[in-house]
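Weekly modeling sync, notes
Attendees: AB, CL, MP (scribe)

Item 1: holo prediction request
CL wants a bound-state model with nicotinamide-adenine-dinucleotide before deciding which constructs to order. AB pointed out that an apo prediction alone won't tell us much about the pocket. Agreed to run with the ligand included and paste results into these notes for async review.

Input as submitted:
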Amino acid sequence: MSKILETCPNFIGGEWLLSPLATTPVHNPSTGEVIAECPVGSVADVNAAVAAAHAAFPAWMETPPVERARILGRFKMLMEDHFEELVRSNTRENGKTLVESRGDVKRGMEVVEFALGVPSLMMGEVLENMARGIDCEAIRQPLGVCVGITPFNFPAMVPLWMYPIAIACGNTFVLKPSEKVPLTAIKIARLFEKAGLPKGVFNLVHGGRVVVDALLTHPQVKAISFVGSTPIAKYIYETGTKHGKRVQSNGGAKNYVILMPDADVENSTRGVIEAAFGCAGERCMAGSTAVVVGGAAKSVLPALIEATKRIKVGPTDREAQPDMGAVITRQHRDRVLELIETGVKEGAQIPADGRGVKVSEAPNGFYVGATILDHVQTGMKVANEEIFGPVLNVMHMEDLDRAIELANQSVFGNGASIFTRSGKAAREFKHRVNCGMVGINIGVPASMAWFPFNGRNDSFFGDLHMQGREGVQFFTQQKVTTSRWFSYGEGDIWHR
Ligand code: NAD
């Protein structure tokens, strides 16, 4: 008996509409089954969604920030009530473990918590007597229709980096989630609708390149937030800015974890394992290269290899949970396996080999076992390319200076970490490493909602990052008013 597939309706102007167009399959990576069909989308869908958002903007902009925050508050409560449902949806379409999905949804909810402070966050500045009798004030106003385009790896959190802040600031929004994971975005949109958000303030359009291009060039779109791979992030930034939009565009990464000879073995092993293999390595903050400095090769590295070999991979869509789930698609699994092969051919050793992993309870799932490539050298393909799978490169350096030099050769610049007992080494590293988010005795740390998600170099294109106060700045424009009032003599009311 064939299973009924879930549909992926667009949400436009408060209506749930099924697109009559062709679809692409959405898989459960744990089993390889097709679970839904996602429409490829069209220019007409984009035009309808932007028109709805444009029409809703004037009334939403005039809604007092306190009232906007109250709706967000109800949305947050509904997310709490439906937390486990969102978590399971996230795991089913992405493949990550339930624990990881709980983190994904929770981190997204924290952005809603941050955005609840919008009446304070949007406050402007005033200076009385800028010149004699002249006062000056700067206020923040929303931009209009804003757009979010998101990747597959955090179906809940990444879209939530964008629209709670945009909407709290008085903008209206069109989200295009990844066509590989459209289902959790739909569930969250249903909660926003239930919270009482006016029609057209938040809209959802599914699809791929045609939809993205129509959003990037639409004259009524004012700002674009993008998260995805570097080539597409660059394309979005260039095309969006060329069409006069404000753009913040997060790209891919390759993050370095420095293991100093004095690093605590147990804590640093745990930190690197989580950083490298959490979410099956499909994180832009994955610690994908361990730089083993001097004696750490004899202390931390053997423990790291043993811990990697113990990682159990398996299906995450059931109660018994493995340590690590599948990767997103069959094609992506094949690409990761091919890159491991390339690394070995280029001369890397493979002390933990996840290539032949067998998962008997889910033989058609997209699995790669946890893998370590040791003695990776600069210039190898695996040293430079983002693998985005459960593969940890190990490189050996004789001292901290060379380790920092190595990390700074990367074209990317999301995050880096150091494990050490030396405050001096940690300070030196924090000061000199060329990336935007730094960890000290902690796996590569993604900023929480109150701080900017702070990539640099080819990991970020734009000026204002997502989350935190920069998020508020991105979704608002300032207006500066300078005023002077004259005295009209005896007729002035205060003289009466
Ligand atoms: P992706 O770039 O393939 O897709 C991201 C979005 O762009 C999707 O919505 C997709 O539909 C759209 N898209 C894809 N190809 C397109 C094209 N040719 N033209 C227009 N639109 C296109 O990324 P992905 O595979 O979904 O996600 C993984 C990537 O995202 C990794 O590189 C990862 O590092 C990155 N990422 C970065 C961050 C960050 O904050 N820096 C966070 C999460 C993921």
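Recorded for review: Residues 43-62 form the longest helix (20 residues).
Action items: CL to compare against the apo run; MP to circulate these notes.
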